[in-house]
Design a protein that fits this description.
Layout: H1 2-11, H2 15-26, H3 31-38, H4 44-83, H5 102-116, E1 120-121, E2 127-128, H6 130-133, E3 159-160, H7 166-174, E4 179-188, E5 200-210, H8 215-230, E6 236-241, E7 246-257, E8 264-275, H9 277-283, E9 289-296, H10 297-302, H11 318-321
Parallel strand pairs: 1-4
Antiparallel strand pairs: 2-3, 4-5, 5-9, 6-7, 7-8, 8-9
Helix pairs in contact: 1-2, 1-4, 2-4, 7-9
5'-O-[N-(L-tyrosyl)sulfamoyl]adenosine binds next to strand 5, strand 8, strand 9 and helix 10.
Length: 328
């Protein structure tokens, strides 16, 4: 009988099956219970003997059930642990690491170049007053040059700066010459947006003021920047132009090879000139001279990296952004 019980107990694959076996053997109508009840029909001596034997079997069955119960619990735990096992040899999930935007890289490169030439980097407010954006830069209220720099106004009469030049006067008001500064920053214009014009873009401004600073210094500074950015001996060109806050004024360009077409041509970078006496007057300066220049960072970045449309910089399209991960 004990062998039969042992076989059934061992065959129970889970706690529920084991409970069924236990009931079959030890329950109210179980085999051992019925055997015990059957003792009543025996005479006292045989009953004592048979009772002892059945009780031994009963204890063995109880012990076997208990042992199997513990064994099943151990197996269950081992199964659960196996299911939760982490395979450390699997390749890790590929998270996106992000990257620095091409415009930020180009700006940082420019700032490195200017820092190495001894320029201090300063920044100014994007929300400006008419005074700093126009008036102090020698744009009188009705001057037609204002039309080229239409912008967005707040109800209290301030405006989103159209260029980084307002920092010229702000800086001069709080510093004494001589100095060399560069001002990177975001600027805004109410433009008809197209492949080369955005309503929000970036400029970099340089301002150098001291005694006897001349146009030759301006020429040299632009040459140094071009050499550092595009290689020693890069040709640069200044052509006469008009900006109210310089006299004389010029547009500057560098000679370079277009990476897509392979053609050599002039790349217009921005405006420059000798700081106008009226600007020095607005800043409270006397007996100094200086030069300034400013240019668009997007336009500069577009050409060497072959970005055909300025709007691509701001569309957050990963197919575009990923191409410049390794740039610079
Ligand atoms: C001129 C003389 C100085 O002594 C100092 C600075 C300057 C530059 C002047 N403040 C200025 O903003 N001139 S600009 O209107 O001709 O713009 C300069 C550059 O900004 C352009 O050459 C172009 O590269 C870029 N730019 C202008 N409008 C743009 C633009 N880039 C993208 N989108 C636009 N809408």
């Amino acid at each position: 009988m004990i062998d039969e019980a042992r076989a059934e107990i061992q065959a129970a694959e889970d706690a529920r099956a084991l409970q069924d076996v236990r009931v079959r053997w030890l329950g109210k109508k179980g085999r051992i219970t019925l055997e015990l009840k059957g003792l009543a029909t025996l005479d006292p001596d045989a009953r004592r003997e048979a009772g002892r034997e059945i009780n031994v079997v009963k204890q063995q069955v109880e012990a076997l059930v208990e042992a199997r119960k513990e064994e099943l619990a151990r197996l269950e735990l081992a199964r659960a642990l196996a299911a939760e096992r982490v395979d450390v040899t699997l390749p890790a999930a590929q998270g996106s690491s992000g990257g620095v935007h091409l415009l930020t890289k180009v700006t940082n490169r420019l700032l490195d170049v200017f820092a190495s030439l001894g320029y201090e980097v300063v920044t100014g407010p994007e929300l400006e007053t008419d005074h700093y954006n126009f008036e102090a830069l020698n744009f009188p209220p009705e001057h037609p040059a204002r039309d080229e720099q239409d912008t967005f106004w707040t109800e209290d009469g301030r405006l989103l700066r159209t260029h980084t030049s307002p920092m010229q006067v702000r800086y001069m008001e709080t510093h004494e010459p001589p100095f060399k500064v560069v001002v990177p920053g975001k600027v805004f214009r109410n433009e008809a947006v197209d492949a080369t014009h955005e309503a929000q873009f970036h400029q970099l401004e340089a301002l150098v003021v001291g005694e006897r600073i001349t146009m030759a210094d301006l020429r040299g500074a632009i040459q140094e920047m071009a050499d550092a950015l595009f290689g020693e001996g890069t040709r640069t060109r200044l052509q006469p132009s008009f900006f109210p806050f310089v006299e004389p004024g010029a547009e500057f360009a560098i000679w370079w090879t277009h990476p897509k077409t392979g053609r050599e041509e002039w790349l217009e970078l921005g405006g420059c000139g000798m700081v106008h006496p009226n600007v020095f007057k607005a800043a409270g300066y006397e007996n100094v001279t200086g030069f300034a220049f400013g240019f668009g960072i997007e336009r500069l970045a577009m050409v060497p990296y072959g970005v055909p449309d300025i709007r691509w910089f701001y569309q957050s399209d990963l197919r575009v952004l990923r191409q410049f991960r390794g740039a610079l």
